[in-house]
Amino acid sequence: MNRRTALRTFLYIAGGTLVLPACFRESGKASIDLTNLSISEDDEHLLAEVTETLIPATDTPGGKELLLHLFVLKMVDDCHTPEEQKQFTKGLSAFSVWSKQELGTGFTIADANSRTELLGKIGESTDEDLKQFFSITKRRTTQGYLNSQYVMTNLVKYELVPGRYNGYAPA
Questions:
Q1: Which InterPro entries match (predicted)?
Q2: Residue 59: C-alpha distances to residues 55, 56, 102, 118, 157 (Å)
Q3: How far apart are CA 85 and CA 171, in angstroms?
Q4: Is 160 helix (H, G, I), strand (E, B) or coil?
Q5: Can you tell me whether residue 30 is helix, strand or coil?
Q6: What gap in Å lies between CA 75 and CA 53, rounded to an integer?
Q7: How far is CA 8 from the centre of its chain?
Q8: Roughly what angle, to the nearest 10 degrees, separates helices 68-79 and 128-146?
Q9: In the prediction, which pLDDT does 171 show?
Q10: Helix (H) / strand (E) containing 116
Q11: Interior CA angle at 33 toward 136 and 85, to 5°?
Q12: How far is the first Cα of the chain from the last one, in angstroms, to the nearest whole number?
């Protein structure tokens, strides 16, 4: 056996052993690391569907494609107070239960029109955790969309400061 071939084979095996654990993700946990929130995989999917309902995919990418649910989770985890984080997680679980009661099925299974109508009914609810959850989710989803790479590169026309000179502008 050639020494170079043996070394190459050893490096392939070593590289595969390092990469292989990254291919398997523990089921039941969120796909990003959060320090202050404990979100399950089902909660993450539910939040993805909520962001997709808030910003649906048309000729532009929607909430799921832009991974806005991950942005919402990261912002809540990093930038909100512990009380707001508790309200968010309570509101997320309350939203899951409430949507099953209102729709008869899960939020992720319902059609787009039913989802939109359900999100419109949140204001009528008496549950403060549910309202706070939706308020945070809506605000952070909008922020994530407006600051996404797609919007900043394709939709916003940026011009460096001070901009171009316009000699005809009124004084």
A1: Gluconate_2DH_su3
A2: 12, 10, 30, 24, 18
A3: 50
A4: coil
A5: coil
A6: 19
A7: 41
A8: 110
A9: 72
A10: helix 112-120
A11: 30
A12: 84
Question: Which amino acid, residue 140?
Answer: R
Gap between the Cα atoms of 150 and 92, Å rounded: 27
Domain boundaries, the chain: 28-153
- Cα(153)–Cα(67) distance, integer angstroms: 17
The amino acid present at 117, given as its one-letter code, is E
Q: Which amino acid is at 135?
A: S
The structure tokens listed for 4 are 């170079």
Q: Which residue reads 């899951």 in tokens?
A: 96
CA 4 remoteness from chain centre: 47
What is the C-alpha separation between 92 and 61, in angstroms, rounded?
A: 24
Q: Which residues, at least 6 apart from 37, have a Cβ–Cβ distance to it below 8 Å? A: 30, 73, 76, 77, 85, 88, 89
pLDDT 10s per residue in the chain (171 long)? 688 888 888 888 887 777 766 666 556 667 788 888 888 889 999 999 999 999 999 999 999 999 999 999 999 999 999 999 999 999 999 999 999 988 888 888 889 899 999 999 888 888 898 999 999 999 999 999 999 999 998 988 877 888 888 888 887
